[in-house]
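In this supplementary section we document a worked example of the pipeline. Step one takes a protein sequence of length 99 as its only input; no multiple sequence alignment statistics are reported here. Step two produces a three-dimensional model, which step three serialises into structure tokens for compact storage. The input and output of this example are shown verbatim.
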Amino acid sequence: MVQVHVKLAPEGKRYSVEVENLGMTVEEFKRTIEVSGALSMVLRSPPFRQTQVQVPADQQRLIFKGHVLRDQKTLQEYGALSAHALLKLDLARQTLEKT
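The serialised model returned by step three reads:
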């Protein structure tokens, strides 16, 4: 099992998501984030509150070393499974407004 570190933009909060399958595609990883509800964030609009957010996979954009990761490739192909790898997760603005 490997931990993949994800930095949530624009807030900069960091999360760790455990991955069992080293050959997992980016799309599968996005679904893992969606299903686990692993992201909790403080919403920027009042009232400020801590909440669990289920982020649909199709509204996630993962970035690693300045490149947007393609859904069909594996995390391993990008070298995103090393101990020092940090993926940036951008969310569609509508996701934050729905909750």
